[in-house]
Amino acid sequence: MIVLAMVFVASTLRAPLTAVGPVIDQIKDALSINNSVAGILTTIPLLIFGIVSPFVSKVSSRLTMSKTVFLSTILVIIALIVRVSGGFPIFILGTVLLGIGIAFGNVVLPSYVKWKFPLQIGLMTGLYSGTMNFTAGLGGGLSYPLSEAGTYRLSLGFWLVFAIIAIILWVPQMLSGTKQEKAMLEQAAKEEKKLFKISRSKLAWTVAFMMGFQSMIFYT
User: Fold this and answer.
1) CA 202 to CA 185: how far, in whole Å?
2) Of 29, 35, 39, 193, which has the fewest beta carbons less than 10 angstroms from its beta carbon?
């Protein structure tokens, strides 16, 4: 059950974003916006990732990882509903909420996998990463056909089904793992005092620079 829950959570972390591009012309017409403003719609989530991600670990340490994943999925559900519920300001609000929700999932899910499957980290990481990549392609591929069957609201709202299934599957995992996670967090807090701050790590800065440079190339 936990693997299935993880797969459905992962399916909500990319597809709601890739579904926008193929129907951007319909969105522009429906919201009466120009190309420049439409470009902002696809940029907002990336900016939100950068702003929110550094704070996710603090939230996770207070809530536990499973509760943070739950919060992430709830935010995605709310965002998907809001994004197709009104005009341009509402669409922007939904996009911001979506970026926040996905940012939480992006940061916490890999750590959760490492904790939950210590002997199968490679396999499970590959599974959720593969799910994200597959559904990202699926989001782009299904978006236009779904909009032809209805409107852009149908193609963007379609992923609400996956998010709802994810939350239903995740609740039992969250409830069953809370005590174990709290114990783990307490132990981690004790060990953290013995470790140097990551901001002083040359390796951390090197990895951050490499990943940032890679993202810059990809998005420019």
Assistant:
1) 26
2) 193
Report whether 206 contacts 95 (CB < 8 A).
no
Q: Give the pLDDT confidence score for residue 182 in this predicted structure.
A: 61
DSSP state of 196: P
Residue with the two structure tokens 């089904």: 161
- Helix extents (H) in 33-87: 35-63, 65-83
How many beta carbons lie within 10 A of that of residue 163, not counting itself? 26
CATH topology classification for 2-178: Growth Hormone; Chain: A; (1.20.1250)
Domain locations in the chain? Answer: 2-178
Query: What are the angstrom distances between the C-alpha of 161 and each of 80, 81, 164?
Result: 10, 11, 5
| Rounded Cα gap, residues 152 and 96, in angstroms | 18
Alpha-carbon 46 to chain mean position = 11
